[in-house]
Amino acid sequence: AVVSTQSTGASAKSPKFRVKKNAPVHTRGINEIYVDTTQPFNQQLERAWRILDEGKLDHVLVHGIGPAIQRVINLALQIKLRGNGLFDVSATTHTVHLHDDLTPIDPHESQLITSQTRRNSSISIKIFRTLEPVS
Fold first, then answer.
1. What is the pLDDT of residues 72-114, one digit of tens each?
2. Which helix (H) or strand (E) holds 75?
3. What are the start-end ranges of the H helices in 3-121?
């Protein structure tokens, strides 16, 4: 969760709030990877490769939001390149709704605790094994 400070209006008497950005809620399957910008890229790449290389599963789903979108695309293309035509990709984009908690900095205004919803772009890429090598 990321915490920052913001004012809710232009008035000098507007309360200032501490914003706690909550992580999105999602379920995780054994063949799903949620990419973020805090983990090393090579670690995420090797995890995806290991799932596909074991041969037990025919695809892996890689998800990312906001600044992680570029990493998700890069990861999928690296797997496709490393697979020498054995893997292909299919991408889907979405808009996700994220909920932030707003807490007043001034303890006398604790009754003003509220939340806000914001939108962010996301991507899901399915990396799947092909029947024949793709050129």
1. 999 999 999 999 989 999 999 999 888 777 777 776 666 666 7
2. helix 69-82
3. 41-53, 69-82
